[in-house]
Amino acid sequence: MSMQEKKLTHYLEIRPARHTMHDGLATDLARHLHSRQHLGSAVIVTEEPLKLLAVVRKQWFKLARGLQRERASTVNAQKILHLTYAVTRMHNLAFTAKPPEQRPEADVFFVRGDQLRLTPAQCYSLYLTKPVEAVTLESFISQLPPESLIVDYASATSRLTAHLKAKATLSEQVRTQWLHVTEFLRKLHINIEDLARQATLQPSLLDDAIDLLLDYSADFLRVASSFQHSLQLAQPYEPARETKLLYNTLALLAHRVQSLNTGQLDDYLNSVVLDSSFFLRESGGVKDQRRRQLSWLLAYHQQAGHTRICQKLNALAWQHSGASEARLAAAVLTLAD
């Protein structure tokens, strides 16, 4: 079935032409890939796969070193955690100059146009740095998942533009999904704009919202996941600083609700900003530190009246911690009562 005969759900982004891999193409590719790496695999079409792979990978690790420096210069626990995950992901990404059928486990494929046959799994990004025969390109695009993005540096899609939607449509979908998020939260009397502005000075406001959202966790996580997916599909996407703060606040709420709801105690503890100086004065290993964190959090949430969070933490303590930690958690709740 040709592209004209099926309903298209693929998108096109035209990037400025780069005549050689050294005139900014590698840098632009690395940055673009970085913004979309969480979506899945990517295919880059080039005349010289090995050479372009080498220069893009060099720029890729340059970006990773920049994130490492940023991580070393911040004391914000949330940012440190986010950057740690990002750097780890970047170092684990597998680049190859072989087609997907020869190395299916890789993440980023550098191939010639005549090697465009089978798409790798979850390939949401196709980069064209050189023209490709129309029949070959059309066949390959038809195999891509819905809402994939074709990034054209070489006017390679001139015959197909009428059958591909503009990338701007993806940005519009982000804004539409955000309206769904704010409407859902509004019904629960949660103003995410107020949260984003005040949470840094009053972290307890986030916990108040999380305690309420735990009663509606399935619906909330569904709405938040739909928004996050639309945001990932639209990458690279640079909203205003204030808007980005709103998106990050939603991501933090969703992460903590999901961690509590799915039994990921360590993920929840790692996402909570605590007074690190308190723990630096304490001796003991990781388990001792986790036990003290859990004890402190339970006492704090009990005092703040976060009944649902306390119930989740207490249940997680019994499921994932040693017996002594579970007894400690129960003791804290009993003493708080």
Structure explained in plain terms:
Helix content is 60%, strand content 8%. It has three domains: 3-166, Rossmann fold (3-Layer(aba) Sandwich), CATH 3.40.50; 168-262, no CATH class; 265-337, no CATH class. With 337 residues, the chain is α/β, with parallel strands linked by helices. Helix 2 runs antiparallel to helix 3 (77-92).
Morphology call: elongated
Q: Separation of termini?
A: 67 Å
Ranges with pLDDT <50 over ≥5 residues? 1-6, 274-283, 323-337
Quickly count the helices. 14
CATH architecture of the largest domain: 3-Layer(aba) Sandwich
Strand content: 5-15%
Helix content: 55-70%
Radius of gyration: 24 Å
Mean pLDDT: 85
Strands in their spatial order, largest beta sheet? 3-4-2-5-6-1-7
Find the CATH topology of the largest domain: Rossmann fold
Number of strands: 7
Category by helix and strand content = alpha/beta
Count of discrete domains: 3
Taking the sheet with the most strands, its summary is:
7 strands, parallel
Order of helices and strands: EHEHHEEEHEEHHHHHHHHHH
User: According to CATH, what is the class of the largest domain?
Assistant: Alpha Beta
Ordered list of secondary-structure elements with their pairings:
Layout: E1 11-14, H1 21-36, E2 41-45, H2 49-72, H3 77-92, E3 95-96, E4 108-111, E5 123-128, H4 134-143, E6 149-152, E7 165-166, H5 168-187, H6 192-198, H7 204-213, H8 217-233, H9 241-262, H10 265-271, H11 276-280, H12 286-304, H13 307-320, H14 323-336
Parallel strand pairs: 1-6, 1-7, 2-4, 2-5, 3-4, 5-6
Helix pairs in contact: 1-2, 2-3, 5-8, 6-9, 8-9, 9-10, 12-13, 12-14, 13-14
